[in-house]
TrEMBL record:
GO terms for biological process: negative regulation of translational elongation. GO terms for molecular function: ribosomal small subunit binding. This is Ribosome hibernation promoting factor. One of its GO terms (cellular component) is cytosolic small ribosomal subunit. InterPro entries: HPF/YfiA_ribosome-assoc, RHF-like, RHF/RaiA. Keywords: Translation regulation. The keyword Secreted does not apply. Coiled coil: none annotated.
């Protein structure tokens, strides 16, 4: 997985970069092949915002999250992207099952 972490008028520390990398490793369980991810972190007082884009299997998924702390915003962002990737994976798997069931009948 290729992960880019950027800050918008914010310096991204090593701790934030490491935390985001650890959390985004959870998304790797959906697909075996590598995919690209990009996170942009910013502060809109009083909230911390995180925007993420994941490109996998020719699809681009985008999510936004805001929370009182940057770590919480990253957690919410990863949860949203995880649900989106799970939906994409389920559609791919269900589509294959539907064809095989029709062929058997």
């Amino acid at each position: 997985m290729n992960l880019e972490v950027h800050g918008h008028q914010l310096e991204v520390t090593d701790a934030l970069r490491t935390y985001a990398n650890e959390k985004f490793q959870r998304l790797c369980r959906h697909f075996e092949h590598p995919f690209d991810s990009r996170i942009q972190l910013s502060i809109d007082k009083p909230h911390h915002c995180a925007e993420g884009t994941v490109t996998a299997n020719g699809r681009t998924l985008h999510a936004e999250a805001s929370a009182p702390t940057m770590y919480a915003a990253i957690d919410i962002l990863v949860d949203k992207l995880d649900r989106s990737l799970q939906k994409v994976k389920d559609r791919m798997v269900d589509h294959g099952r539907g064809d095989s069931v029709r062929q058997q009948l």
